[in-house]
């Protein structure tokens, strides 16, 4: 009111103005800066037993912090989790990493002006449980100079598996390793649902120093109700199928066919069955029955059976980053055990491999993983041939 304002002396007026200013400042204090991250959480890969430290920096100290794991409020366990906030730095420490600690961690900063979140995935690596020599020289040399201890000239491997899982790419990869440059000569069209390989073909490997003592046979892929017939695989295993035969998914190779070898010898038959399963689709159960019956036939003949698990890069992001993580990946170990259980092949005969598929240059890690598997199966195939050498004439039926 005018009278009272007019009554106010100069000092009072100054005092009122001053108190308004104070009020404005304290209003600014109660409306803190909207939370933002100056630095965000980083993805972590830690081995069992290591401590995990997730940390980030907020733009203001005036925030409350909450943590979630896999979208559930993180339940702090005494001696396991420690949350800390010092100034603008927020830290979650997880002691002695174990499998259950793997997951997606989210931090949320909030205050009266809003909130902000960021997340990071924590992956727990298992201790490397199978070792690979990540230098190819020795393995390459020992395969180059491998002497088959008996009368066959070469060890023969049959590749068998569903359509489009990388059977032909295995041959290209092996050829790339031995011949030192990229090969794409027996590759299927990407993503096809019917087999691109239609003809029974054998691939040998050689470089300027000579040929390698093994051959791989590439065949049509298996499909649930079509594709290569189980009888044809058995014929190939026993050495009845001659190179160049074109598969007919309706009719098996018959004795009257020009491509039927009536009296196969030890040299004509297969010395190892390589079942090819993609690591990112181990549960292709539709095919498992077919594969089990082929495996059963190989067992009857005493032929060693192994599994090459291709496409490991698709099964685990860790491996996409670094192939040397292959035996540190839980996902790969799980899938190897799954393969082993489904097919009845012991885990020590399951080999994760990566094929050349998008690379334009030779990659020593890809080579080493394949060479490691190849070295093992060469010894097993040779053992088989050794055991059967004494009755080398018709070994089938
Ligand atoms: N990411 C990835 N792709 C692969 C790998 N191996 C093969 N491929 C790709 O998978 C597709 C099929 O590969 P192929 O080798 O032709 O498969 P296949 O088993 O011979 O196929 P069919 O003869 O048709 O039964 C191609 O596009 C390859 O580039 C691998 O290890 N990783
Ligand atoms: Mg093929």
UniProtKB/TrEMBL annotation:
InterPro entries: Ig-like_dom, Ig-like_dom_sf, Ig-like_fold, Ig_I-set, Ig_sub, Ig_sub2, P-loop_NTPase. The keyword Transmembrane does not apply. SMART domains: IG (SM00409), IGc2 (SM00408). Residues 35-123 form the Ig-like domain. It holds the Pfam family I-set. Gene3D superfamilies: Immunoglobulins, P-loop containing nucleotide triphosphate hydrolases. This is Ig-like domain-containing protein. It comes from Hemibagrus wyckioides.
């Amino acid at each position: 009111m005018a009278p009272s304002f007019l009554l106010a002396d100069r000092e009072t007026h100054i005092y009122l103005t001053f108190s308004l200013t104070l009020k404005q400042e304290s209003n600014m204090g109660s409306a803190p800066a909207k939370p933002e991250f100056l630095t965000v959480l980083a993805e972590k890969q830690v081995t069992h037993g290591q401590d995990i430290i997730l940390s980030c920096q907020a733009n203001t100290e005036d925030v409350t912090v909450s943590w979630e794991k896999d979208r559930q409020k993180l339940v702090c366990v005494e001696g396991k989790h420690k949350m800390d906030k010092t100034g603008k730095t927020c830290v979650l420490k997880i002691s002695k990493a174990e499998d259950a600690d793997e997951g997606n961690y989210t931090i949320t900063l909030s205050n009266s002006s809003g909130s902000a979140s960021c997340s990071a995935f924590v992956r727990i690596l298992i201790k490397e449980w199978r070792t690979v020599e990540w230098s190819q020289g020795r393995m390459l040399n020992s395969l180059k100079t491998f002497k088959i201890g008996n009368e066959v000239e070469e060890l023969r491997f049959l590749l068998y598996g569903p359509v489009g899982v990388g059977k032909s790419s295995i041959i290209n990869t092996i050829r790339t390793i031995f011949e030192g440059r990229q090969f794409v000569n027996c590759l299927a069209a990407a993503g096809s649902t019917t087999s691109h390989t239609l003809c029974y073909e054998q691939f040998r490997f050689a470089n300027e120093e000579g040929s390698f003592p093994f051959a791989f046979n590439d065949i049509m892929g298996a499909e649930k109700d079509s594709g290569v017939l189980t009888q044809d695989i058995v014929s190939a295993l026993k050495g009845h199928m001659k190179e160049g035969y074109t598969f007919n998914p309706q009719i098996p190779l018959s004795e009257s066919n020009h491509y039927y070898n009536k009296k196969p010898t030890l040299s004509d038959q297969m010395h190892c069955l390589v079942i090819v399963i993609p690591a990112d689709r181990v549960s292709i159960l539709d095919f498992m029955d077919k594969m089990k019956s082929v495996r059963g036939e190989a067992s009857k003949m005493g032929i060693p059976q192994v599994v090459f698990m291709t496409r490991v890069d698709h099964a685990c992001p860790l491996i996409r980053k670094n192939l040397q993580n292959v035996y540190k990946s839980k996902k790969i170990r799980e899938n190897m055990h799954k393969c082993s259980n489904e097919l009845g092949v012991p885990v020590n005969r399951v080999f994760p491999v990566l094929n050349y598929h998008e690379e334009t240059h030779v990659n020593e890690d890809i080579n080493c993983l394949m060479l490691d598997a190849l070295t093992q199966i060469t010894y097993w195939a040779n053992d088989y041939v050794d055991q059967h050498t004494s009755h080398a004439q018709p070994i089938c039926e």
